């Protein structure tokens, strides 16, 4: 990275005067960052929903993202379904996988200590990944974009129709999410669980049903994220690991909220990565994102938007 | 304390006698890695099992130890016995410094921060090509030697690694039984209560974090000199997770449990080799059922299993 | 007359008993391939091919009457495992020689074991460090990255393009490519005006490409393996980049065209000859081997053979020839391997010597271009 022939390095960049060309570049970085960030946000919300309902960090969340993409491909290619039918089928099967996971792995746990839960979700993710590898092989697969791939130019930066799909679906999901948690009985019950599970069960909320529900919602969100991003990034049995980690990151920045804070967390992460790769160093872009994450945690240990909690003794 | 000493002596004899049974073959080689992984698991268990602090970045410390030893000896021609303590010192200082801000975090925030730390270290290994050789790795690391005795085969390496391994085990057994060990467990139960009792929880946590990192670095140095080659892929997120799994499967807060966990997870892939592509599924499934049916880890689950089997035998005998 | 019959009889009996003695023992060959994990795209075709070739050889009567037996282990791309399994092959399975590993990192890790135990190793990975400097027991079949880089630079030089941007993946394959791209540039009068990397699991490379667009680069050279380069091709199309895009031989299979779709159109890359086997003139020395490989692979696995599998094909055939010329002890196999001259395989025409254990020259690669979703040779 030290070739002096490089045109632009971080510090030089800041010293130089901005030309329209560079503004265009920054715009392009931001667009790219926002669309990857939207995906991180969806995955992050999945993490938060399960965490809030159960206190579990579900390390298998990334595998639902993988399942979304791979199942869509399965329904498209092998069963020859049209896209509008393949997507709901894929989401439904992912939700089923979520239910099975909760019933077979989480519920029967005799000593659900946090650390045992971490291990069981990690084991679950290994198992799901292994099954996907056996079923669909190790190859990477392409999925056709939802509506063509003619680039669209906006103020000198270009995006694809799929990016619009990603942003639109993300906004839609956030809206539905908000509606669910604030205007439906089940949603309100789930929020009650996240504040205090014992109190919630005392007022007659079936906590175990809420836990199951949280797994269903998260697997649906995860698989949707996997589906809308697959036409851009392609999909394979092992795409879930990295995306899952990034989603976890987004949720942490957002203070494990299942609402806007995590969305902002995801977008921040996506844009930071993209700007880091474009302006400073592409090799260190993930490191840059993680260093900023560490700094955020050091300064605000409850996440960027969280309130400080008092500790019970 | 006498009982602990007897237990350790029994363990040590078992370990030192093992080559009599397994000598020569390939299993010896695997047992060398069981030794390295035991050191790592015991180190992580100090942090996780005794002090109750999770770390998803321990592969990073292991890696820094391995790379520092490797670079100092292979590139700069240092004596390996000098490079090793220096690497440990650097890692210990680093962990001590980063420990203060990082251990202020709790629960999943701590998990995330240590995970991030591990990933940053991994990226540095990959990107500093001139120093580490980048993704293609660093080769030509010399074997350790004492005078004319060069540790260049599995048999010699076994005793070399396990000398360190047993020392680490003995040290940790002692530590657990000491005042420090009790203070650690107090921090684990309730930090605030421990503080009230006059334990400086913050310093103590950082000290354990640094100690754990130093042991990991030592294991890393030994790994580098046995393998004579290191590459970043061995020190990624996956390995951090594997270490965590060893500790939990073995049994939190038990030194010998960590050995059991390390031995099981190192030997398991060998046992599953016959299953070919199905091994990953069996591996995942096995981990799941272990957590389900032996939630306290092998060290508590196995005796219980024996007892149950024995009782059933008795029952059958009476009938 | 009687005498003649008697002599014939003796000779026959002698021959029969000789073959019987030979047939009594099988020759064990070890295989170390990354069948799972991130390098599975290398390891899987390699394992499949090695199995296939051994099967075909045994069907045809084996080597000097010996059957070959292949013992394959999966390293999952992990250097530690590769070393353990190499030890297992040598100590427990007593193999005569080892084929693999698949990646440069693993090969570098296994080399000390092979050297110490004095076992011939034919690596299937490309890193130049594997055979430079020459190690007594180590050979390789994958073409050096130097040759691939040379093919691209030659083309650029002919077309008077001297400023390039490089975009390499941050794993062993990309790092080795990046090193060679930088090292060879001056020789061809080329300046690298932008040097970027991307992660093997990255999903969006528009940031790097935007930066390249802002540079003075006349061409982009991308060094990686699927799926990264396909993402890059798509991203480049999205950004409307006009400069020509070059890929490495890491993506020279139909899979790349399938993944990148329309975005693959016009992309050029250096490749082993296997993907254009049917387009080669009959005079090409490798044509026979190439068509046989493609046909066999299609028959066994109903899939297209790629040049990664070809590395294993070459390795097994080189071993077979060495055993045929000499014997099946480790030392004679090594010596005979080193005496290989003009063996036309999949990766190229191999001639090893005491100074050269890579054995290929620059006719191992051709420059191909994607035209209408098919490969064509660039003249």
TrEMBL record, chain B:
Record keywords: Cell membrane, Membrane, Transmembrane, Transmembrane helix
First-listed, main subcellular location of the protein, grouped into a coarse class: membrane
Matches recorded under InterPro entries: ABC_transp_permease, LivM-like
Cellular component annotations (GO), alphabetically ordered: plasma membrane
Topology relative to the membrane: Multi-pass membrane protein
CDD domains, alphabetized: TM_PBP1_LivM_like
Tagged with keyword S-adenosyl-L-methionine: no
Transmembrane annotation, as ranges: 33-52, 59-78, 84-102, 109-125, 158-176, 203-223, 243-268, 280-299
Subcellular location: Cell membrane
One Gene Ontology term of the molecular function aspect: branched-chain amino acid transmembrane transporter activity
PANTHER family (UniProt xref): BRANCHED AMINO ACID TRANSPORT SYSTEM PERMEASE (PTHR30482:SF18), HIGH-AFFINITY BRANCHED-CHAIN AMINO ACID TRANSPORT SYSTEM PERMEASE (PTHR30482)
Listed name of the protein: Branched-chain amino acid ABC transporter permease
The organism of origin for this protein: Oryzomonas japonica
Automatic annotation (TrEMBL), chain C:
Annotated Gene3D superfamilies: 3.40.50.2300
One example of a Gene Ontology biological process annotation: amino acid transport
Any Pfam family hit: Peripla_BP_6
Coiled-coil ranges per UniProt: none
Keyword Plastid attached: no
Keywords carried by this UniProt record: Amino-acid transport, Signal, Transport
Residues in the signal sequence: 1-23
SUPFAM superfamilies with a match to the protein in the record: Periplasmic binding protein-like I
Domain named Leucine-binding protein: residues: 26-371
Similarity comment: Belongs to the leucine-binding protein family.
Protein name per the record: ABC transporter substrate-binding protein
The organism's taxonomic lineage, starting at the top: Bacteria, Pseudomonadati, Thermodesulfobacteriota, Desulfuromonadia, Geobacterales
């Amino acid at each position: 990275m030290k070739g002096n022939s490089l045109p632009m390095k971080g510090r030089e960049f800041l010293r130089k005067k901005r030309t329209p060309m560079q503004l265009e570049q920054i715009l392009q970085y931001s667009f790219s960052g926002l669309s990857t960030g939207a995906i991180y946000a969806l995955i992050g919300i999945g993490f938060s929903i399960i965490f809030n309902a159960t206190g579990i960090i579900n390390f298998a969340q990334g595998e639902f993202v993988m399942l979304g993409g791979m199942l869509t491909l399965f329904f498209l290619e092998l069963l020859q379904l049209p896209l509008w039918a393949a997507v709901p089928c894929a989401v439904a099967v992912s939700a089923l996988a979520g239910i099975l996971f909760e019933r077979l792995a989480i519920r029967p746990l005799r000593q659900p200590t946090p650390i045992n839960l971490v291990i069981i979700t990690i084991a679950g993710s290994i198992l799901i990944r292994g099954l996907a590898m056996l079923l669909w092989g190790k190859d990477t697969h392409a999925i056709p974009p939802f509506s063509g791939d003619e680039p669209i130019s906006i103020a000198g930066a270009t995006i694809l129709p799929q990016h619009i799909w990603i942003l639109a679906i993300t906004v839609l999901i956030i809206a539905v999410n908000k509606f669910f948690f604030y205007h439906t009985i089940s949603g309100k019950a789930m929020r009650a669980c996240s504040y205090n599970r014992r109190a919630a069960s005392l007022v007659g909320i079936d906590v175990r049903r809420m836990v199951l529900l949280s797994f269903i919602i998260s697997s649906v969100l995860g698989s949707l994220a996997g589906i809308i991003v697959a036409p851009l990034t392609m999909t394979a049995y092992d795409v879930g690991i990295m995306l899952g980690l990034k989603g976890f990151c987004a949720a942490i920045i957002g203070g494990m909220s299942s609402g806007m804070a995590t969305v902002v967390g995801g977008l921040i992460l996506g844009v930071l990565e993209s700007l880091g790769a474009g302006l400073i160093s592409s090799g260190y872009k993930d490191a840059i994102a993680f260093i900023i994450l560490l700094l955020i945690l050091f300064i605000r240990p409850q996440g960027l938007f969280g309130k400080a909690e008092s500790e019970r003794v | 304390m006498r009982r602990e000493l007897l237990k350790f002596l029994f363990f040590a004899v078992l370990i030192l006698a093992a080559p009599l049974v397994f000598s020569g073959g390939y299993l010896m080689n695997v047992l060398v890695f069981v030794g390295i992984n035991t050191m790592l698991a015991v180190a992580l268990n100090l942090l996780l099992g005794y002090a109750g602090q999770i770390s998803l970045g321990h592969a990073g410390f292991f890696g820094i130890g391995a790379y520092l030893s490797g670079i100092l000896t292979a590139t700069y021609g240092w004596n390996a016995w000098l490079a090793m303590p220096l690497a440990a010192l650097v890692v210990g200082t680093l962990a001590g410094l980063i420990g203060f801000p990082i251990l202020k975090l709790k629960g999943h925030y701590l998990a995330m921060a240590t995970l991030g730390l591990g990933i940053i270290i991994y990226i540095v290994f990959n990107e500093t090509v001139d120093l580490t050789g980048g993704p293609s790795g660093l080769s030509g690391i010399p074997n350790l030697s004492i005078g004319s005795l060069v540790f260049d085969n599995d048999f010699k390496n076994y005793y070399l690694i396990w000398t360190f391994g047993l020392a680490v085990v003995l040290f940790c057994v002692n530590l657990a039984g000491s005042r420090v060990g009790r203070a650690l467990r107090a921090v684990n139960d309730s930090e605030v209560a421990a503080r009230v009792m006059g334990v400086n929880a913050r310093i103590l946590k950082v000290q354990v974090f640094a100690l754990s990192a130093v042991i990991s670095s030592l294991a890393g140095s030994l790994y580098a000199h046995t393998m004579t080659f290191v590459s970043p892929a061995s020190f990624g997120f996956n390995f951090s997770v594997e270490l965590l799994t060893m500790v939990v499967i073995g049994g939190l807060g038990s030194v010998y449990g960590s050995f059991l966990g390390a031995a099981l997870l190192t030997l398991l892939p060998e046992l599953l080799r016959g299953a070919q592509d199905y091994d990953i599924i069996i591996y995942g499934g096995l981990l799941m059922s272990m957590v389900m049916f032996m939630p306290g880890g092998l060290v508590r689950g196995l005796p219980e299993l024996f007892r149950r089997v024995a009782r059933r035998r008795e029952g059958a005998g009476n009938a | 007359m009687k005498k003649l019959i008697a002599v014939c009889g003796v000779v026959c009996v002698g021959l029969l008993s000789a073959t019987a003695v030979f047939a009594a023992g099988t020759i064990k060959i070890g295989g170390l391939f990354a069948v799972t994990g991130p390098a599975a795209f290398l390891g899987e075709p390699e394992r499949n091919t090695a199995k296939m070739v051994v099967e075909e050889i045994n069907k045809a009567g084996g080597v000097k009457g010996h059957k070959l037996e292949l013992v394959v282990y999966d390293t999952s791309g992990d250097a530690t495992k590769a070393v353990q399994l190499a030890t297992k092959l040598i100590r427990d399975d007593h193999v005569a020689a080892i084929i693999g590993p698949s990646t440069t990192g693993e090969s570098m890790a296994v080399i000390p074991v092979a050297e110490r135990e004095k076992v011939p190793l034919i690596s299937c990975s490309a890193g130049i460090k594997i055979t430079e400097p020459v190690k007594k027991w180590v050979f390789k079949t994958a073409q050096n990255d130097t040759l691939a880089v040379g093919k691209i630079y030659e083309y650029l030089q002919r077309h008077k393009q001297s400023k390039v941007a490089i975009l390499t993946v941050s794993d062993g394959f990309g790092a080795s490519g990046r090193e060679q791209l930088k090292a060879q540039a001056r020789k061809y009068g080329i300046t690298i005006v932008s040097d970027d990397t991307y992660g093997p699991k990255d999903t969006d490379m528009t940031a790097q490409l935007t930066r390249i667009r802002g540079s003075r680069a006349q061409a982009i050279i991308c060094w990686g393996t699927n799926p990264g380069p396909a993402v890059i091709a798509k991203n480049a199309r999205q950004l409307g980049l006009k400069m020509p895009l070059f890929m490495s031989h890491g993506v020279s299979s139909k899979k790349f065209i399938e993944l990148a779709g329309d975005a693959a159109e016009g992309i050029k890359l250096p490749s082993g000859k296997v993907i254009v086997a049917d387009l080669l003139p009959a005079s090409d020395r490798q044509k026979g081997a190439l068509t046989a490989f493609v046909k066999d692979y299609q028959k066994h696995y109903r899939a297209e053979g790629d040049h990664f599998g070809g590395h294993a094909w070459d390795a097994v055939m080189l071993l077979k020839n060495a055993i045929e010329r000499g014997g099946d002890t480790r030392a004679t196999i090594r010596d005979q391997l080193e005496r290989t001259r003009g063996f036309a395989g999949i990766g190229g025409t191999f001639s090893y010597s005491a100074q050269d254990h890579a054995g290929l020259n620059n006719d191992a690669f051709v420059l191909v271009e994607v035209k209408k979703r098919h490969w064509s040779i660039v003249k």
